[in-house]
Design brief:
This protein is of the alpha/beta class and 349 residues long. Helices cover 17% and strands 28% of the residues. It folds into three domains: 86 residues, 3-Layer(aba) Sandwich (Udp-n-acetylmuramoylalanyl-d-glutamate--2,6- Diaminopimelate Ligase, Chain: A, domain 1), CATH 3.40.1390; 149 residues, 3 Solenoid (UDP N-Acetylglucosamine Acyltransferase, domain 1); 36 residues.
Length: 349
């Protein structure tokens, strides 16, 4: 498919500086792009690449003067580029269609219209699966699970009993939804006895869950993932956690039990959150932040223990200076020692 820049501007909006009749034939990264490609630039540090890229157009949110390449300036370069990629994408996605003969379907299961079940899918008694939902091979759908419409469940996902999944939810391969929460009571001789986890998990509309994510069922009530939230790979969400709407949880984040995460929160990679605290709306926990207490709304925290981001940066700057400060203190100690020896020698003389 070919599109002129004029046609692309009509689709994504923005302001074009350059030749609207240039024909775009494909999409690429700014370093790899060749003539006829359109690319994007959303990070200041890559602005110098405008002088070296072979792309025919660059989508950006930055105001750049005297660019040697056609520029399409928009409010959100990543979003605009995503729309362009959809235009030029020719990757064929072949979802399973129909119900494979090897699928095992229990009693009183309700399947909506155009449901697809891949090879060796197991659907236990009493499950409900909504219209247009696609379940890839090797998935397990537990007793009385409810899955809404137009969901995509990729291979080898386990959805345990009584879990509720709403509409247009995407779950990537290997994730486990509704595992038992990590609850044990210490009894005699320091032995640990399992505490029954009889709650469930509720996944609301338009949630996307990455590969190998574990979301534990609540002890009594519900673990909840709010509408529009996006979860990256290898995330652990413990029992009774409530995540608000449109939040982003990046790879290897761990959230301990009964924590409340607000709306529009970002938990960056490898952040660790203790249990029974609240993270307010629009908060940002930077990568590897260790959160040990409540985080107010509209704030950024980082470091361990997590503290306001600007304060954490100052602390880190001081830590980086420790070797130099240590050396200076050692030199001062040596000078003081030499001075004391000189004074002692003068007194002895």
């Amino acid at each position: 498919m070919n599109k002129t820049l004029k046609e692309i501007v009509k689709i994504v909006g923005g302001s074009l500086v350059g030749d609207e009749d240039v024909v775009i034939k494909g999409v690429s990264g700014i370093k790899e792009a060749k003539k006829g490609d359109i690319t994007f630039l959303s990070n200041h540090k890559y602005i110098p690449l405008l002088n070296t890229t072979s792309a025919s157009c660059v989508i950006t949110s930055f105001e750049v003067s005297d660019s040697p390449v056609n520029l399409l300036t928009v409010k959100d370069a990543s979003l605009a580029f995503a729309k362009v990629v959809e235009l030029f994408s020719n990757v064929e996605i072949r979802h399973p269609r129909g119900i494979d003969s090897s699928a095992k379907i229990g009693k009183s299961v309700v399947l909506g219209k155009n449901v697809s079940l891949g090879a060796h899918v197991v659907v236990e008694d009493g499950a409900h699966i909504g219209d247009g939902t696609i379940i890839y091979p090797g998935c397990y759908i537990g007793y009385s699970v409810a899955i809404g419409t137009d969901c995509i469940i990729y291979p080898n996902v386990s959805i345990r009993e009584r879990v509720i999944i709403a509409n247009r939810v995407v779950i990537q391969s290997g994730s486990a939804i509704g595992s038992d929460g990590f609850g044990f009571a210490v009894v005699e001789d320091n032995k640990r006895r399992r505490i029954p986890q009889i709650g469930t998990v509720v996944i609301e509309d338009d949630v996307e869950i990455g590969a190998n994510v574990a979301i534990d069922r609540a002890r009594f009530d519900k673990t909840i993932i709010g509408a529009g939230t996006k979860i990256d790979n290898l995330v652990q969400i413990a029992h009774n956690v409530v995540v608000g709407k449109n939040s982003v949880i990046v790879a290897q984040v761990g959230i301990s039990g009964s924590t409340q995460v607000g709306n529009n929160v970002i938990l960056a990679g490898q952040a660790g959150i203790v249990g029974h605290i609240e993270i307010g709306d629009n908060a940002l926990v930077h990568a590897q932040g260790g959160v040990t207490k409540d985080v107010p709304c509209n704030t950024q925290v980082s470091g361990y223990p997590a503290r306001p981001h600007e304060e954490a940066k100052r602390v880190n700057a001081c830590v980086q200076r420790l070797p130099k400060l240590y050396k200076q203190i050692h030199e001062l100690e040596e000078r003081l020692k030499a001075l004391e020896q000189t004074k002692h020698g003068e007194k002895s003389g």
